[in-house]
Structures are given as C-alpha cells and as structure tokens.
Hints:
Blueprint: H1 2-21, E1 45-47, H2 57-61, E2 67-73, E3 79-87, H3 96-100, E4 106-108, E5 123-125
Antiparallel strand pairs: 1-4, 2-3, 3-5
The structure holds iron/sulfur cluster (2 copies).
Amino acid sequence: MRIKQISRGFLKGLQVTGIHLFRRPVTHPYPEQRAYTPPRFRGIHRLIVEDCVVCRACERVCPVNCLTISGVRGDNRRFILEQFDIDYSLCMFCDLCVEACPPHCLVMGPEFEIAAENRHSLRRSLLSQPKEEMV
Ligand code: SF4
Ligand code: SF4
C-alpha cells in the first residue's frame, strides 16, 4: 500500500516536471536580466537639487521620520541644500514625501537595489546621486 502511494506521488511529480519542462520560464535570471519596473514604480528617490527650495515639507510629512534635510541661505536669499539624507532602513516607499513637494523636484525612480552590509549604509544622501540617475 505504502509503495503504491509513493510510486503514484513519484509519477505525479514526473508528470508536473514534464508539463513545465518546455514552457517559457516565468522568472528572470536576476541580476543578469533586470526585472521590468512600471512607469509609476516607487523605487529609490531622485532629487533635482537645483529646484529644491528647502521647504522641508517632505521631511514633515514623512510618517517614519527618515528624512534629514538642512540648508543655508545663499547670497540671493534663496536657500541652498546642504544635506538631504534618506534612511532606507526606515523608508516604506509610501510616496507621501513626493506628493508633498511643491516644486515637484523629488520623485521616486526605478532603482530598487539598496542591499547593504549594515543598517548605517542604508542612509543615503541624495546630493551625491550620479547625474545619469537623475534622467
Ligand atoms: S517614501 Fe514615505 S517613508 Fe519614504 S521618505 Fe518618503 S514619506 Fe518617508
Ligand atoms: S518638499 Fe521638495 S522642495 Fe521642499 S525640501 Fe523636500 S524636496 Fe525640497
């Protein structure tokens, strides 16, 4: 009886393997092939530094307080950003900071690779983003 059950299970397993053997794979061989990210994907933030007026609306609206922003007043009385850090160990990619930004200079990009060796490395400055990431 037991041998009969085992052989039935074995044959069923072979049948499932046979069905799926010649089908197209549904997974991507990541990281060789990047996954498709839709246009409104909420990935790592991007900041157009020149357009930021340092109003700190994004910092105030963040429900987990993971934004740290500071600036100084420049010669033309316009504020200049000195610090714009996001702690990605806390950020939950809710998009509220993006919605609160008056000049729309803060957006969420398609990047999602934020793996790090420790929590401190998950704190990122948007001032040092490579220019190609801003496009
Ligand atoms: S996406 Fe949400 S949690 Fe992350 S920084 Fe913006 S407001 Fe804060
Ligand atoms: S809300 Fe926009 S303009 Fe204001 S500090 Fe944040 S990124 Fe800069």
